[in-house]
Amino acid sequence: MKNVYITTVLGPDRPDILKSLAIVTRGWGGEWLNSKVMKIDGQFTAMMKVTIEQEVEGKLKAELQEKFKDLTFIYTEAASGKEKPLETINLVVECKDRSGLTKDINSIISANDLQVDRMDLDRYEVSGIGVAVFCAKLAISVAEGTDKEAIAAYFEEMPDDVRVNFV
Asked: At 103, phi and psi to the nearest 5?
């Protein structure tokens, strides 16, 4: 019988780290059903949805811990798949940078019970106008048929001439 779980891996980035993790997983007959990776300033985090035969799951986890002592592994049970069908809305929120924007966006997400799959926040200077711009790229899972314009409206209500685009 196969088990499905989520592995979160955290630690210092190095060349071929993901390839090395995948080789160990495949060595025990495991498979990554999907994965997400993020790297910042020499650190990385990855989440992988893993399927593996139940009788070797513990051996895989033990080998990962032994071979990659500088990494932290967190294991979580995967969702059952019996949830309502979802679709993803990808949008970009842009406005003039100011203090508190990240807090405001998180408040909107929380107040409207939005499920965020990905959120990338950036600030950058726009040469020529001398203004910093804030940019949030969001992937939000919603029930199928949800009005995406209504989701955009939550963010457009913020001050600062917010512009929301779908991608």
From this structure: -60, -45
